[in-house]
Write a structure and sequence with these properties.
The complex is a heterodimer of chains A (1017) and B (512). Chain A is mainly beta and 1017 residues long. Among the domains of chain A are: 88 residues, Sandwich (Immunoglobulin-like); 121 residues, Beta Complex (Ferric Hydroxamate Uptake Protein, Chain A, domain 1); 80 residues, no CATH class. Chain A is 6% helix and 46% strand. Chain A has nine helices and 49 strands. In chain A, the strands form eleven sheets. Chain A has a 22-stranded antiparallel beta barrel. A five-stranded mixed sheet of chain A has the order 10-15-16-13-14. Chain B is mainly alpha-helical and 512 residues long. Among the domains of chain B are: 194 residues, Alpha Horseshoe (Serine Threonine Protein Phosphatase 5, Tetratricopeptide repeat); 92 residues, no CATH class. Chain B contains 20 helices and six strands. In chain B, the strands form three sheets. Chain B has a two-stranded antiparallel sheet with strand order 1-3. Chain B is globular, with a radius of gyration of 26 Å. In chain B, 51% of the residues are buried. Classes of the chains: A mainly beta (1017), B mainly alpha (512). Chains A and B meet through strand 25, strand 26, strand 27, strand 28 and strand 32 of A and helix 1, helix 2, helix 5 and helix 20 of B.
Chain lengths: 1017, 512
């Protein structure tokens, strides 16, 4: 039978190099003669530990440290198979030869079959837990990802990734198998075992990414694993003496996927007047003013500015270069890489640069010892407006009157129109660019030396040390200015005091891990035992200095200012752990695995400091049973089941200690502040303990028709108990920030399905593949001790409902007739008018009040999916990747979308032309100007489901003759586009955004078009 | 070799559990705090600091005037609009903010009251701190009892569970406030060691206010007398100076909340833009029209004056120059009319045509009502939300007016009453009160005097609530816009919905 995952391959891969040296010698029986030889790599270096097996038997041996072997065979017709991790296997017929010199060729598709698991690797077909794998080179291609985590989007069932938008230097939010906690739900990212962030790595340095989705696979990481674990494995050093140079570069343009379509100024004026009158105020604009705006006869006083269009550019440039070198020199392998990303933002005034570097080296010291060290880091710089407080530029775009010109006639910044109502228009383009500057710089370095020792076959010790240091500096510089109207008179837009703030953050992570791993096969019984320890410490130092009154806006250093305000903290947490794993494999049919980890954490009081996290899983490869062997239809079949527990300790540093927090100062003598006060501002809980996630599930992996079609299906339950909650406390307590309590329970139930098909059409050279994955997740808060939590005025955490559900009145329509006014009750004490929103009287008491609030939307997507397609013909290849989410709601109010009851400069989207008026009674939008239409209600909830062409890439690989002429190993050119097409009901704004982002103020997502090349020397 | 590696693995042993013992060294905790005088000083600073948020003396108390008949705030997000037109409800955010901030101050006071008595430090320092904490707790509870009537009475540091108690009736809350102030008067020094500190007379004046607000006339009168007889306070000569930088912590100030700029301790009530002061706040024509002429009578009754109604639209909005010209009137005559009024009008409000910042003639079309606020406002564009003006919570003129009101209610007009009232009038050059008035007429005049003397200082709303005159004054007399004042529930605020959600023992106030 063929292996499951890759029909192209004809041999079973082995486990991790150090774990796969299997004893066969004991089983050798009397043989007729001995054959011997040496196994070398392409560069001629001897390969120790190569697995040599007589075909069709379990008889075999391995090469010694000099690559030599001896093997007894009884029949010249015998075939011998040489296999070694990282190399293509070779089969030889013994014939009459007594001596063999074998050269093994480096394999290019290695990790597709060997899966990186916690503290080791495993054959994919022997996995008993739920692990998703992405191999960037193969799966992702040259998708223009400016943040490395974006590569995971839509690739793995059960992994929800939301990009924060196209802001240069922006990140993404990853949720694995549903949101299991009301606290920080981001997964643990380990880079070659070292805690870090995916932003620290260059996409092209990544060999593989394993996402440990269930407790069975993640519990070996204990308390840090409740939100899932992402294991990133970087490429190892070269295996040949020949230097391999790989250069990949692309450059292209970005633009917003969609920008809001706001009202023209004359429509804006008409609607503002209507809203003002309805709200009981006087109209703002005269008919003459509206006519001037419509005619465009006075563009600097009554203009028609499209602020969205003015603040964003079409075609922001970005470029990315990645260069890597790899080689084997003597007994040392290395890989070095350097990457550079330069991204101008689509919003004026935003940009980012990033440099990534890496050196991976590993040396064979002999006598079973290997020493290696990884050294890597990232230098990041980004720039944006510093006016982000409560009036970020995104909000200003919607809150600025279109009457105001970008520039006055004399070229100065516009900030007022001809109407005094607009003397305080914060020009968004000015605020985005000249009003202030924010520079974020960070520099992160990690050094990760390790030592391996395998004294006897199958036994490996490893000690792995890492130290990461991050220095971040955030500089926010707000300038003084005075803007004017078109006549040169000062407007109310000014800043009379400039300020400069330096925030410095340093993070230090130290981790030391020691593991011992023993791997052995006794006949049909295979076992693997792992024991290990971890010590981990994390320290964060924060300091802030803010000064004002710098004598010039050009001065950018703290020393130039006065009125210094300083602040700083230092926090540390530590972790001490013991862990063990036992795996048993009977005849590649029955698989069993047990994990246990004990964690001790400084974050908890001494009485609750230690916790135990067990996990069990089992699998049955039924296709290896005799009754199914040789089945044409079913080439592979496995069922598996798992159960395990995980912890979560992302709750700050000392939540058990009741501290007195510094408050702002008070000038008791009327003129000076010596220091602030001390008061309890956050309550502590001395009995705090871990959140525990119990996860269990079943799954199946199937292959059909020689694995032409493969299917993976999973059903899972993720049940998190003792969730640390800040349950709302009465204001009468006098403290605004409640203590964490182990009070909540959240359950995620779901299923995942992935189907893949790969085929080569005869010898035509035409290849294609198509893959599809879909995840369904139901999120439910099981218990909150009867309490209800309101994270903000529109969301609720309530028992029996998903986390963060939207909560408010259910809007059932608009009062359109006098009968409606009679029939539907209204808000207590208020009288509705025609055109107002009707709210459902849930409890039927004839009045609308807080009792009638109900769940009106779910911000957690019910379905997420990805579709992957690829075709290749001769040198051409095309990759197409679609991604989407279904049944997810957003709350869309305030920015561009509001009742008009406020007396402000907020514009509307063009949808609001269809508001209710006596002349337009069939309107979709309510009457303007009634504050009661702005009550939290389902009217403002919108379906943000989307389906988008996430990435499309067309590439051409030049054939060998061209490459030879150019003295290259390979040459590829490609064109790539991300987000070129989106289907969504949501208009004006991109549907992809964080659930917490409800005011339509997210930096827009981008569509990119890039051209690139990949050259290997 | 194996041995070495086993040792290596064993190195990360669990015996070294000290590794996991970390201390938060950023600040003091329950065990290390409350040891020294410095610690107590930090706690007291935090208690004073709780006076300063936007919702309280940083701006909000003054802004209560815009839910009275003095002011108008159309910025819906600030929530004053909803309250002024009677559209507020338990979930109106500002109601919750005000509730929470007063209780925050109460907790900080309770921290001191719970912990200071056990500290072995200088007794005088300790008693002063306790007296200050009692004063502050009383001030916050007085705010709560005036706005909400019945509120949970929390008199020690409480856990969230302990805070889930039923409301106490208003009488009980007031009795506690009086009790706290009585203790504070005993413990506080005659004179604070620094200008911003609470002293005995601040506690007396506050107790007078609480007595007055709760119609205990005799007690109110006595406390006022004690302040008046102390000789420590008097009226500042110039009314305008009182609200300027020079007038801070003057001889008239009995208790002022202190603010300074640039040190995260600024206020938000005094800032101005080039085009207008306090852009959220318009002054209602009602207040402008209510000031007497220089002759001490209503403009309608003064042959030497023209009522403002001549110059304004029906809703009180002043007519523009063009509109007046069409009627054959000159805007200069209208402007001149302001000099014919009680000088306090000019100090308190900003009218069109008055010089403002760099405008020779202020363009009042930026204000919905045509009038801006001028009292306390800085005359130059500065840090708009980080101001350095102190806010007078209790000043001597208020004590005089309280005395007059209490004594008139208690025993009718008398020389003492007129003497106190006339001091307030004479300071601004207004004629004396008509000494022949009866008790009822004088009551109305005292109420009028309080309005014009204390306008835009955050007292009008409280006064209207206690006089039970708000229906007429807010709903009927405000001409600029429509207001609803429902007497069955608008004399007190609803308990915030968030608080109802979080405390099952709490019942909603009647009418809500």
């Amino acid at each position: 039978m063929k292996s499951f995952y890759h029909g192209k391959k004809k041999f079973p891969f082995q486990l991790l190099l150090m774990l796969t040296l299997i004893f066969f010698g004991f089983e050798a029986t009397a043989q007729d003669r001995i054959v011997s030889g040496t196994v070398k790599d392409e560069a001629g270096a001897p390969l120790p530990g190569v697995n040599i097996k007589i075909k069709g038997t379990s008889t075999g041996t391995i090469t010694n440290f000099d690559g030599q072997f001896k093997l007894a065979v009884d029949d010249p017709a015998t075939s011998i198979i040489f296999s070694f991790m990282g190399f293509e296997p070779q089969e030889m017929v013994v014939g009459q030869n007594k001596s063999f010199d074998i050269t093994l060729v480096e394999s290019t598709e290695l990790l597709s079959e060997i899966v990186v698991v916690g503290y080791g690797t495993q054959k994919k077909e022997n996995l008993t837990g739920a692990i998703g794998v992405v191999t960037p080179d193969k799966d992702v291609g040259n998708q223009a990802v400016t943040n490395t985590e974006a590569m995971l989007q839509g690739r793995i069932a059960g992994v929800q990734l939301t990009q924060s938008g196209g802001k240069p230097g922006g990140g993404a939010e990853i949720i694995i198998r549903g949101n299991g906690t009301l606290n920080n739900s981001s997964p643990l990212v380990l880079i070659d075992g070292v805690p870090g962030s995916m932003q620290d790595i260059l996409p092209s340095d990544i060999e593989s990414i394993s996402v440990l989705k269930d407790a069975a696979s993640a519990s070996i990481y204990g308390t840090r694993a409740a939100n899932g674990v992402i294991l990133v494995t970087t490429k190892s050093g070269g295996t040949t003496e020949k230097l391999k140079v790989n250069y990949n570069a692309y450059a292209g343009l970005q633009k917003a996927t969609v920008l809001p379509d706001f009202l023209d100024s004359w429509d804006y004026m008409t609607l503002k007047n209507e809203a003002s009158i309805n709200a009981g105020r006087s109209p703002i604009y005269t008919d003459e003013e509206i006519a001037i705006a419509r005619e465009g006869s006075d563009p600097y006083r009554y203009g028609n500015t499209d602020w969205a269009d003015e603040t964003f550019k079409d075609g922001a440039f970005f470029q990315n270069h990645q260069l890597s070198l790899s080689q084997k020199v003597g007994k040392t392998q290395y890989m070095a890489s350097l990457g550079y990303l330069d991204q101008k933002g689509i919003m004026y005034g935003t940009s980012a640069e990033r440099i990534n570097y890496r050196l991976n080296m590993k040396s064979d010291l002999g006598k079973g010892f290997k020493f290696g060290a990884n050294f890597f880091g990232a230098i990041k710089k980004s720039e944006a407006s510093a006016d982000t407080d409560d009036q970020g530029v995104m909000r200003l775009i919607a809150n600025s009157s279109p009457l105001v010109p970008v520039f006055n006639q004399d070229g100065s910044w516009g900030s007022a129109s001809g109407n005094p109502f607009e003397i305080n228009t914060k020009n968004p383009l000015f605020y985005a660019t000249e009003a202030s500057r924010q520079h974020n710089n960070s520099n992160k370095t990690t050094i990760n030396p390790y030592l391996e020792f395998n004294p006897i076959d199958g036994l490996t010790f490893k000690t792995n040390f890492s130290y990461s240091f991050t220095q971040g500096l955030n500089k926010a510089h707000k300038h003084t200015f005075q803007l004017t109207d078109n006549d040169g008179n000062d407007s109310d837009i000014s800043r009379v005091q400039n300020s400069l703030q330096d925030v410095s953050n340093t993070y230090e992570t130290v981790q030391w891990e020691n593991t011992a791993n023993y791997n052995k096969k006794f006949g049909r019984h295979g076992i693997n035992v792992l024991v290990g320890t971890t010590m981990n410490s994390y320290a964060h130092r924060w300091s802030k200095v803010r000064v004002t009154d710098l004598p010039s806006n050009d001065l950018g250093q703290i020393g130039a200012g006065s009125n210094a305000v300083v602040d700083g903290t230092f926090n540390e947490s530590r972790l001490l752990s013991l862990f063990s794993r036992f795996q048993y494999n009977f005849d590649d049919r029955y698989l069993f695995e047990a994990n246990i980890r004990q964690d001790g954490s400084s974050k908890f009081p001494a009485n609750n400091r230690f916790a135990l996290f067990p996990a069990l899983s089992a699998g049955w490869i039924f296709s290896n049973e005799s009754f199914l062997k040789g089945s044409e239809f079913l080439s592979f079949g496995k069922v598996r089941a798992n159960w395990g527990q995980l912890g979560n300790d992302k709750i700050g540093y000392y939540p058990y200690s009741q501290t007195y927090t510094p408050t702002d100062g008070y000038p008791i003598d009327g003129s000076t502040i010596n220091n602030g006060g001390l008061a309890v501002t956050d309550l502590a809980n001395p009995d705090i303990k871990w959140e525990t996630t119990t996860s269990y599930g079943i799954g199946a992996d199937l292959g059909f028709w020689d694995d032409l079609i493969t299917v993976t299906a999973d059903y899972f339950v993720k049940d998190t108990d003792d969730i640390l909650l800040k349950l709302p406390i009465p204001g009468a307590t006098g403290v605004s920030n409640p203590a964490f309590q182990n009070a909540g329970r959240v359950k995620n139930t779901g299923w995942e399905l992935a189907v893949n098909h790969f085929n080569k059409v005869g010898e035509s050279g035409f290849e294609y593949n198509i893959g599809f994955n879909i995840t369904n997740i139901k999120n439910e808060i099981i218990s909150m001790q009867g309490e209800t939590q309101y994270p903000n005025n529109r969301q609720v955490n309530m028992e029996g409902h998903p986390i963060g559900s939207f909560f408010g009145y259910n809007n059932t329509g608009i009062y359109r007739t006098e009968e409606d006014l009679e029939k539907y009750p209204y808000i207590d004490g208020q009288t509705p008018q025609l055109g107002d929103l009707i709210y459902q009287d849930i409890n039927g008491d004839g009045v609308i009040n807080d009792e009638d609030r109900t769940i009106i939307g779910n911000p957690n997507p019910e379905y997420m999916y990805g579709i992957n397609m690829g075709v290749a013909y001769k040198g051409f290849d095309l990759k197409v990747f679609f991604q989407g989410v279904q049944n997810v709601d957003i709350y869309s109010s305030a920015t561009g979308h509001h009742s008009g009851s406020g007396n402000n400069l907020m514009n509307w989207t063009t949808d609001w032309l269809d508001r209710w008026t006596p002349e337009n009674q069939d309107a979709t939008m309510p009457r303007l100007g009634n504050v009661n239409n702005e009550q939290i209600s389902s009217f403002w909830v919108q379906d943000a489901s989307y389906f988008r062409l996430k990435n499309i890439e067309l590439g051409y690989n030049f054939n060998q003759s061209v490459c030879k002429k150019l003295k290259l190993q390979s040459l590829r050119i490609y064109a790539n586009s991300t987000n070129p097409l989106t289907w969504s009901k949501l208009e004006h704004w991109d549907p992809e955004r964080y659930a917490s982002q409800s005011r339509n103020e997210a930096y827009p997502q981008t569509t990119t078009l890039t051209f690139g090349t990949n050259i290997i020397f | 070799m194996k041995k070495a590696i086993i040792t290596l693995l064993g190195a990360a042993c669990f015996s070294c559990s000290n590794y996991l013992d970390l201390q938060d060294n950023n600040t003091l905790n329950q065990d290390s705090f409350w040891q020294t005088e410095d610690h107590l000083h930090l706690a007291v600073t935090a208690a004073y600091e709780s006076l300063t948020p936007e919702e309280l003396y940083g701006r909000g108390i003054r802004d209560l005037d815009c839910i009275s008949d003095n002011g108008y705030n159309e910025w819906t997000w600030m929530n004053y609009w909803d309250i002024s037109v009677g559209q507020h409800h338990p979930a109106t955010d500002r109601i919750g903010w005000v509730w929470n901030d007063n209780y925050k101050g109460i907790r900080r006071a309770n921290e001191i009251l719970d912990n200071a008595p056990g500290m072995s430090i200088d007794a005088k320092v300790r008693d002063t701190a306790i007296g200050e904490a009692l004063f502050l707790r009383a001030l916050f509870y007085n705010n709560l009892s005036m706005l909400f009537n019945n509120v949970p009475l929390i008199l020690k540091v409480v856990s969230p569970e302990e805070a889930r108690i039923e409301k106490s009736p208003k009488e009980e809350v007031v009795a506690q406030v009086i009790d706290d102030l009585t203790r504070a008067i005993d413990m506080l020094p005659e004179k604070g060691e620094a200008v911003g500190k609470i002293n005995k007379y601040a506690a007396l004046a506050l107790r007078a206010r609480v007595y007055l607000f709760n119609e205990q006339w005799e007690n109110a009168m006595k406390d006022c007398e004690e302040v008046m007889n102390s000789g420590k306070y008097s009226l500042l000569d110039d009314y305008a100076t009182l609200f300027s930088a020079e007038g801070q912590n003057s001889i008239e100030s009995i208790f002022s909340v202190q603010f300074i700029s640039n040190m995260r301790s600024g206020e938000m009530f005094s800032g101005t833009y080039k085009k207008q002061p306090q852009s959220h706040f318009s002054v209602l024509p009602n207040l402008v029209h209510d000031y007497y002429t220089k002759n001490g009578v209503k403009a309608e009754d003064d042959p030497e004056a023209t009522p403002f109604s001549t110059w304004t639209h029906e809703n009180g909005l002043p007519k523009s120059e063009t509109e007046l010209a069409e009627e054959g009137l000159s805007i200069y005559d209208y402007w001149a009319e302001f000099t014919n009024r009680d000088p306090r009008l000019d100090v308190t409000i900003l009218r069109g045509g008055e010089p403002w910042v760099d405008q020779a003639k202020w363009d009042n079309s930026v204000k919905a009502t045509g009038y801006g606020i001028q009292k306390y406002i800085r005359k130059e564009v500065g840090l708009y939300t980080d101001g350095d003006r102190n806010f007078m919570v209790l000043r001597y003129a208020d004590v005089l007016l309280m005395y007059a009101e209490a004594k008139n209610e208690l025993s009718g007009p008398s020389g003492d009453v007129f003497n106190a009232l006339n001091q307030v009038r004479r300071r601004v050059g207004m004629p004396d009160f008509d000494g022949s008035m009866g008790q009822d007429d004088l009551r109305n005049e005292i109420r009028h005097e309080r309005r014009v003397e204390l306008a835009l200082e955050g007292l009008r709303y409280f006064d209207e609530l206690r006089w039970k005159t708000a229906k007429d004054d807010f709903e009927n007399k405000v001409i600029f816009h429509e207001r609803t004042f429902n007497e069955s529930k608008h004399y007190w605020w609803p308990i915030p919905q968030t608080e109802m959600d979080r405390n099952p023992n709490l019942s909603q106030n009647s009418g809500w």
